[in-house]
Amino acid sequence: MEHLREISKIAEWGLKGDKQRLAAYLDQLIEKVESLGDERSANRLRRISEFPKSEMASSAFGSTPRIPVDSESRLSLADEEFFEANSVQIVLDKRIQESVDEFVSYVENADALEKHGVGVSPSLITYGIPGTGKTQLARHIACRLKRPLVTARADTLISSFLGSTSKNIRTLFDHVAHRHCILFLDEIDAFAKLRDDQQELGELKRVVVSLLQNIDAMDSHTIFLAATNHEHMLDPAIWRRFTFKINITLPSCGDRKQIFNLFLNQYASGENIELFADLAEEMTGADIRMISENAIRDAVVRGRKSIDINRLVWRIVETRLKRSISPEDGKPEDIIDVKNLSPSIFKGSTLAELFQTSESTISRKIKQANAAQP
């Protein structure tokens, strides 16, 4: 049958609701029909291609399918997010950015890759400690690809009736297979643990098998993202199913500067951004975002146009020490702990300003603390 490839692709993307790919294959078909001298058919197809997109969306595709629910609890199996262009900002180091760019380019050129017999499964897993931006990266990818992000809800997907969990997984995978969207399994270790874990029930091990079967059944155009804080707990078979594996690490000093700039914006000077980035060593992007937004809230409430530098420094100090410190108390052990965070920054004069006392008092308390150590 002539033009079978274009016709089948038009049917496929029409059913999946992908207007961009549908239009691209329709244009290809028009060009081929026109090249054969069938101007009448070409014009007819051209009129179809000029059909208003809003009408095409409502008449051809219908409304957006509803997210399926668990049959027992009737709760949604996933949450869905839609993003405006360039609305999701993220700071990534060069290594991670290159991997993400490669992944996005493979998705955007899936048809060309498939045509040349080198198609790739568009699957990516991120791993690392909490707060490093794994979920935000999934949103960033969805934003770049202009697709909604369907994030599985582990609390609903894993049914209290264990036999229903595999059914829920299959239902969710079937749902995304017929949509122009991205499936995201956050905290995938919740239902993809090692099958040799003696503490797990047999039914939960069967859930891993079900997940594997559904991943293998995905077509080459279904985008599958996942994230985990415990990659060592994942079943190796699940791990092997991902084409891209990205370790999201703590931000470097340069990345910390970018994150502070992103969230503090006009509320802090470049000189102070340098200070904050140096002090925020070993902090996650989520930590930096939280203290930056808290500092801005404080400035807005106080009617200030810039943040309180000392208050933000204290937030960094307390975040890194994982405890609250009262500057008025000026305990010797607190002064020592703050100084040890960054000896090059927390010198006598800086500590005196932070603890609201004199340099001589700071020096005396440091000697006192050192003398008390065994």
Structure description:
The protein is of the alpha/beta class and 374 residues long. It folds into three domains: 4-61, no CATH class; 78-247, P-loop containing nucleotide triphosphate hydrolases (Rossmann fold), CATH 3.40.50.300; 253-372, no CATH class. Helix content is 55%, strand content 7%. It is built from 18 helices and six strands. It has helices at residues 4-16, 19-35, 39-49, 53-61, 94-108, 110-115, 134-145, 154-157, 163-177, 202-217, 236-240, 253-264, 270-279, 285-301, 309-321, 332-341, 348-354, 359-372, and strands spanning 78-81, 123-127, 149-152, 182-185, 223-228, 244-247. It has a six-stranded mixed sheet, sandwiched between helices. Strand 4, helix 10 and strand 5 form a beta-alpha-beta unit. Helix 2 packs antiparallel against helix 3 and helix 17 (348-354) packs across helix 18. The longest helix has 17 residues, at 19-35. It is elongated. Residues 52-62 have low confidence and may be disordered.
Descriptive terms for the model:
374 residues; alpha/beta; Rossmann fold; 18 helices; 6 strands; elongated
Fourth-level CATH superfamily of the largest domain: P-loop containing nucleotide triphosphate hydrolases
What is the overall number of helices?
A: 18
State the total count of DSSP E strands.
6
Rounded to the nearest angstrom, the distance between the terminal CA atoms is 88 Å
Structural class based on helices, strands and sheet pairing: alpha/beta
- Give the CA-based shape: elongated
Overall pLDDT confidence: 86
Question: What fraction, in percent, of the residue positions are helical?
Answer: 55-70%
> Would you list the SSEs in sequence order as H and E?
HHHHEHHEHEHHEHEHEHHHHHHH
CATH architecture of the largest domain: 3-Layer(aba) Sandwich
CATH uppermost class of the largest domain? Alpha Beta
Share of β-strand residues: 5-15%
CATH topological fold name of the largest domain:
Rossmann fold
How many structural domains in the coordinates? 3
Spans of at least 5 consecutive residues with low confidence: 52-62
Radius of gyration: 27 Å
Characterize the biggest β-sheet.
6 strands, mixed
Q: Strand order within the widest sheet?
A: 1-3-4-5-2-6
